[in-house]
Amino acid sequence: MSIALTAVAAVCGAFFLVSGLGHIVVRGMPRTPAAACGFSPAACRGIGVLELLGGAGLSSAYFVTASAVVAAGGLFLLTAAAFTYHDSHEQRGLRLWAPLVTATIMLCLFVGLPLSSVS
């Protein structure tokens, strides 16, 4: 089970690293989902920094379980806030379900990683 959770954490970490870099590197008005929802460029970059830090923490799950657990908790809060934002603006489809699925995966990692490392 530990190998599976570590693999899921690494894949999610890579996803958040790429997503965070995309938010940070774009010049001018970012063409990201956050920008499409009306966030300012500074807010988009802030979200990108949080995603980048969370992705780096998840990617280190094999070496430092504690940082992966903290990163999974932080990314759970970030994606739960994204779900709440999209739900309050009555958006449906992928914009609503993607944060919900991601938040669920982050919650499973947050709970599962510490339990899998217990010997």
Topology:
Blueprint: H1 2-25, H2 33-36, H3 41-59, H4 65-88, H5 94-116
Could you characterize the architecture of this molecule?
The protein is an all-alpha fold. The protein has one domain (2-116). It contains 5 helices and no strands. α1 (2-25) runs antiparallel to α3 (41-59), α1 packs across α5 (94-116) and α3 packs antiparallel against α4. The longest helix has 24 residues, at 2-25. The mean pLDDT is 85.
Number of domain modules: 1
- Poorly predicted spans: none
- Sketch the major β-sheet: none
**Helix run count:** 5
Q: Strand-residue fraction?
A: under 5%
Extended strand count: 0
Radius of gyration, rounded? 15 Å
Q: Shape, please?
A: globular
SSE string, helix = H, strand = E?
Answer: HHHHH
Proportion in helices: over 70%
Average pLDDT over all residues: 85
Question: Could you write a compact summary of the structure shown?
Answer:
The chain has one domain (2-116).
Feature tags:
119 residues, mainly alpha, 5 helices, 0% strand, transmembrane, DoxX, DoxX family protein, transmembrane helix, membrane
